[in-house]
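Lab notebook: predicted structure, single chain.

Context: the supervisor wants predicted structures on file for every construct in the current expression panel, including those that have not yet been purified. This is the next one on the list. No modifications to the sequence; it matches the entry in the shared construct table.
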Amino acid sequence: MLQDIKERIILQKREIESKLKERYIERNQDLKLNNDLIKVIVGPRRAGKSFFAIHFLNKQGKFGYVNFDDEKLVEVENYDEIIAAINSVYDNPKFILFDEIQNLPKWELFVNRLQRQGHNLVITGSNSNLLSNELATHLTGRHLLTNIFPFSFKEYLKLETSRFVSAQSNLDGAQEPLIKKNVLDNKELTITEIKEKMSQYLLNGGYPEILSKKIELKEYLGTLFNSIIYKDIVKRYKIRNPREIEDLVIYFISNIANEYSYNSLTKVGKIKSSHTTEKYLKYLEESFILFSLNRFSYKVKEQLSSNKKIYCIDNGFIQAKAFRLSPDTGKLYENVVACKLKKEEVDGKLKFYYWKNQQQEEVDFIIKEGIKVKQLIQVCFNINNLETKNREIRALIKAGKELKCSHLLIITEDTESKEKMEWFGDKATINYIPLWKWLLT
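Prediction complete. Output recorded below exactly as produced.
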């Protein structure tokens, strides 16, 4: 059995050596390796977790690697044989990287034991359950968490800039481009070019392989989508009627930024009970396809009982799987903003919600830091329509007064300005900023 494990790890080692030769765009995160805590990297499948980890570890010296997407390795009963094989193949490496660790039964007990024995571990997982039950129960105080999402717009521009400058260097013999340079200071892209890239990012999203290898989006994301649904959810949780959960997620992706309740979803999806619907949505959120946004209230009970809004982890999935004839640009704008805020939320920088009053006036995003509401954000693709503009401003001013927040922002297609407004005696200053510029700040 040990020999079989070694052979599989040798094959994976060759794959890693090949990946290390591919072009790599620096992510906006670091791994703090100068301690004995378990480093946990969590995020969607194919978002670049293992690529990030192997490039980071490769700078530190020797590291061992095991990918538990291999069904034979998951079936290993004696986990000590895995360690013996790693030490043999990689000559007792300083670090060990376990990829997609959630596939290994009782993984948390295994890595906990290895950490106590002095192994320096980095683990990745594509299930947010790693963030809660297992980590909280077994690794309390002994792990550091890093979240890797699909490329942000800033990371996307790094890739596009490096591609452009690399082409130039091939022509004129220039030195290798400095792709780590801050995009806002990079003279290789004009504002017009950045806006063009924004239009592409809005539709295609930020999955790294699509962007770096020019893979056909719908085919790639369709295959990834099916893998997540059937491998990470249906198989893992033994769902008897997979069509129910597939119909549910397609409905969500086709209705991004809309409100939902479990009862209404049960009717739409023809699912037997709201409890089953809630369970399905939990699986979809754990697998990083979707995430929900609570309605803001100072009363926790009211927050939990109110309708939620749904968003998708990447706009590429909307392009690939949504059931619609043409994209709703306003919804795509709002989803991109929600994704950036979600990343900041899982990184512990803020909490965010949506706001709605009894008159059904709405503010897209309420940003809360600690106990204070710090900012109110409306996302409005077309601010030139006077009726739309007044509706957005009216809701902002009312929410600002109720929540005692004066930092009011409208994210637009191309407007950048500051405007003093008044609504029935309530005065406020509204800031406008283009989406591309907000994403780069």
